[in-house]
Write a structure and sequence with these properties.
single chain, 9 helices, 266 residues, 5 strands, alpha/beta
Length: 266
């Protein structure tokens, strides 16, 4: 008997189901992307006094460049007076002198403007930071948050695929997490890895799931994905959760496959 021809709606439903499986989205779950958040510049670690002194230095450099330019302009004018060194010189030498004078004046003027704008910008920064300190906008919580972020970044080590294989093969509590989707993992995987899909909008849930299976105080985690982007975010989420030993595989599964000495399961 000939196979039944599916309707367009059935084919569309099957395609949606496959897409949900690739993205790790459960049936009925809605993902509503919100507006991209604006990331403000962190000024809590800026020293207002140092910024002010830097603005004075930049202002002095601007004034020096301007004074030097004016000095050279007057020097060239003195040369052009009767009795100067260029009287009776050939035409080519006079043209070269004009070109050099133009370049010097243009360069000096540009340096004066650059240093001047830099001085004004740094001065405005110092005033802004001082105002934030006086009004309490920059509190101790900002410093604590920044310190925690620095500790999180320091807790994650970037390692090569070969190093990841060496660590997991040696044991010593190292666990290799594959944070790709189940669909990706079925196309090819690193032997011995545990598939725990990571999605940016589920970072907290991902870290909680891993913490339930592997105690943060005792476990050592190696994280990899397809190319290294998701694993970086996943490793940061684990570090924030309290995992002290977290390693991110540089280049992910693609870099792993490029090394012919590393095993791969199909």
């Amino acid at each position: 008997q000939p196979a039944a021809v599916s309707t367009p709606n059935e084919r569309l439903a099957a395609q949606i189901s496959r897409t949900r499986e690739k993205l790790g989205v459960e049936a009925g779950e809605k993902i509503v992307p919100g507006p991209r958040p604006f990331t403000p510049v962190d000024l809590s670690g800026v020293n207002a006094f140092e910024a002010f002194m830097s603005s004075i230095l930049a202002g002095g450099m601007s004034a020096g460049a301007g004074a030097g330019t004016m000095f050279l302009i007057h020097a060239f004018e003195a040369v052009e007076r009767p009795g100067g060194g260029l009287d009776g010189s050939v035409y080519v030498v006079q043209r070269v002198e004009i070109v050099v004078r133009t370049m010097v004046v243009a360069g000096g003027s540009l340096a004066t403007c650059i240093f001047g704008v830099t001085a004004a910008g740094i001065l405005a920064l110092s005033v802004r930071v001082a105002f934030g300190r006086l009004t309490g906008e920059f509190t101790e919580a900002d410093v604590v948050r920044k310190t925690r972020a620095e500790r999180t970044a320091a807790a994650v080590k970037l390692i090569t695929p070969a190093e990841a294989y060496r660590r997991t093969k040696a044991g010593a509590g190292w666990v290799h997490l594959d944070v790709r989707t189940g669909f990706e993992a079925r196309q090819g995987r690193v032997p011995g890895t545990i598939n725990v899909p990571f999605f940016p909008w589920k970072g907290g849930a991902f870290a909680a799931e891993v913490a339930e299976r592997f105690p943060p105080e005792e476990s050592r985690i190696v994280v990899s994905c397809r190319s290294g982007s998701r694993s970086k975010a996943a490793a940061a989420a684990l570090a924030e959760r309290g995992f002290a030993s977290v390693a991110d595989v540089d280049g992910g599964f693609l870099a792993w496959c490029e090394d012919s000495e590393l095993p791969v399961e199909k």
